[in-house]
Amino acid sequence: MNMLRGNAVVGQSGGPTAAINATLAGVLRGVLESESIDKLYGAFNGVEGLLEERYCVLSDVVKTEEDIKLLENTPAAALGSCRKKLPDINEGKDVYEKLFKIFEKLDIKYFFYIGGNDSMDTVAKLTKYAKQIGSDLRVMGVPKTIDNDLCGTDHTPGYGSAAKFIATTMQEMLRDTAVYTVKAVTIVEIMGRDAGWLTAAAALPRLNCVISPDLVYLPEVAFSVDDFIEDVNAALEKKPNVVVAVSEGARDKDGRYIGESAQSGALDVFGHKYLSGTGKMLENIIREKIGCKVRSVELNLPQRCASHCASLADLEESVKVGRAAVKCAESGESGKMMCFERAEGEYSVSCIPRDIHEIANMIRFVPREFINERGNNVTDECLEYIMPLINGEVSPVYKNGLPVHLVIER
């Protein structure tokens, strides 16, 4: 083992999830087991807060085994998050110089960043700069995103819990809508800008029972309004109540988002459009073209942090990948993201490091073979891939009927 003595810092970035704190707990567990890392700093609001020198000593606020377990079952980002895009190294050298002065001041030898695609961009840039100046800082990306769109890994921590919430909610909505005989269409808009993994999870009830969404539309297949109307009419001929799951990122053959006319057009710092309105747009189209009763439902924020419905497999794997990141960094790895590798046969995963430059700023789409030929539903093979990720139930601590969460004051 290539031992490097010093301290570590961990930050959280991007959208919150039900499992990102389990990964944070995994990093803390790894550091507590470490023989080379003395202290773990927690950066408030990711790299943005680190630049402002806002941080804590994590073991001073998460002190006991009971605290760590509570952290594992607490949703959202306990340290706070950010969506800060670091500048190009050649254009913003002062930013990197400031960061590395802070690392030097705190004797930071290890940097762990928990996040999704945009966060891995930060890991890649810090790795490149460290190499450029000859720093011995070890930089590790630890995956997190409900979108399941990170390359290099079988799946991402956070996805299993979000998928479980979506599948559970969809099954309950299917029961609700099935009680009536009046012709009606219910459209459920689900998160997913570029990849349709979350929307695919809406079809999971199909493996358990006879009910499932009649139509499922992912961004991976170009959306046609004419085909959509044809699909809905065909479904209405078979049954009075039709349920549709659609990704917020559904777009036509020209790449234009279906709900674009209802959106603000505003961009975030990474150049992503703020999306919403796809379900409402399709609702209006059905009302105009078909004329039956129709409603749209946007699952919105509850998809991300529904820890009361978290997947036990997801939380356990999130802890596992955080702990593995520490062990890999201790052994000499840097500029890597920890990835899940699925074993053949009975479901299990191992954690392996992969080069961050082969992962950052890339998107892992739902394979075309996971989508039916018509492009309006997913295959059983797709659902069999997802199902193990939602397995197992958590047992949150409750007080007065509500879950108890661990709060880190910032």
Task: Give a written overview of the molecule.
This protein has 410 residues and is an alpha/beta fold. Helix content is 35%, strand content 18%. The chain has helices at 20-33, 46-51, 58-61, 65-72, 93-105, 117-133, 159-177, 197-201, 205-208, 225-238, 278-289, 312-330, 380-386; strands spanning 6-12, 37-43, 55-57, 108-115, 138-143, 184-190, 215-217, 241-247, 293-298, 336-342, 349-355, 398-399, 402-403. A 7-stranded mixed sheet has the order 3-2-1-4-5-10-11, with helices on both faces. It has a 4-stranded parallel sheet with strand order 7-8-6-9, sandwiched between helices. The longest helix is centred in the middle third of the chain and has 19 residues, at 159-177. The mean pLDDT is 94.
List the helices and strands and how they pair.
Blueprint: E1 6-12, H1 20-33, E2 37-43, H2 46-51, E3 55-57, H3 58-61, H4 65-72, H5 93-105, E4 108-115, H6 117-133, E5 138-143, H7 159-177, E6 184-190, H8 197-201, H9 205-208, E7 215-217, H10 225-238, E8 241-247, H11 278-289, E9 293-298, H12 312-330, E10 336-342, E11 349-355, H13 380-386, E12 398-399, E13 402-403
Parallel strand pairs: 1-2, 1-4, 4-5, 5-10, 6-8, 6-9, 7-8
Antiparallel strand pairs: 2-3, 10-11, 12-13
Helix pairs in contact: 1-4, 1-12
